[in-house]
Design brief:
15 helices, 259 residues, mainly alpha, 61% helix
Length: 259
């Protein structure tokens, strides 16, 4: 049998295994397919299984490199799967421990984006994900854990443009991801900033805003909380198998930050 004739059966097998909760067996099926037919067979299957199945499978590995799906998932397939990550978040979990959810989401996104050293793939993943409404919200959730650092990155972009170094007053792990997003997609970077800071403008005054170390102190300008963003992402979970609404009429600054 040819590789092409085996793909429908492999796609069906992986889908059924994931839905049954047998993620290890699904990963084994991927591994055997890669050994027999090459990595492109796994890529093709990931292109064809429903995005909610991809989300279930990849969520089980937290973006770890031990998953072939993490290493090989096509950018658009991954971007579509992000729409379903919030489907299992209950109100109690969001209310009681929003930071834990955000950290888990960060582990997944960071793990996928930095799974390899291929900069072209990294930027393709980030560009596809940030082109969706749910992707913009997902990045805003991650950035909400380090708003001061994100604004410092924004300030660097304004002042240094293509010479951006990503140096901030903190070594927070979200900074390299933010820098890569800005390099991969100017529009995606803007959209994520608007999600976190609805009043954001590319101005030095806002980018240099100071944050208090007191978590109970109100921010000096409008900023969505991690909890609010988690609820926003959950509302964006598609109600059907179709993932067709890629973008909405959200504002885009079109600022040419690296021109």
């Amino acid at each position: 049998m040819t590789e092409k004739s085996n793909l429908p059966a492999l796609t069906k097998q992986v889908t059924e295994l994931v839905l049954a909760g047998s993620l290890g067996h699904a990963e084994q099926a991927f591994s055997e397919a890669a050994d027999q037919y090459g990595d492109l067979a796994v890529v093709e299957v990931l292109n064809n299984i429903p995005p909610q199945v991809t989300a279930l499978h990849m969520a089980g590995f937290d973006g770890g490199k031990m998953s072939l799906a993490t290493l090989l998932v096509p950018p658009k397939a991954w971007a579509d799967s992000l729409a379903f990550f919030a489907a299992t978040w209950g109100d109690d979990l969001i209310e009681d421990d929003p930071e834990r959810i955000a950290e888990s989401l960060f582990a997944h996104i960071h793990g996928v984006v930095f799974a390899t050293d291929d900069e072209e793939r990294r930027h393709a993943l980030l560009a596809e994900a940030s082109a969706t409404d749910w992707g913009s919200t997902a990045f805003a959730i991650l950035f909400s854990m380090a708003p001061k650092e994100i604004l410092e990155v924004a300030g660097e972009i304004i002042s240094k443009g293509p010479y951006l170094t990503g140096q901030t007053s903190s070594d927070n792990d979200v900074v390299p991801l933010a820098v890569e997003l800005a390099k991969a997609s100017e529009d995606g970077w803007d959209r994520a900033l608007f999600e976190l800071f609805p009043e954001f403008r590319h101005s030095a005054d806002l980018a240099d805003a100071e944050f208090s170390d007191d978590p109970d102190e109100e921010p000096a300008f409008l900023q969505r909380s991690t909890k609010e963003l988690l609820y926003r992402l959950r509302k964006q979970v598609p109600s059907s198998r179709s993932v067709s609404a890629r973008t909405s009429a959200r504002r885009s600054l079109g600022s040419g930050i690296f021109s």
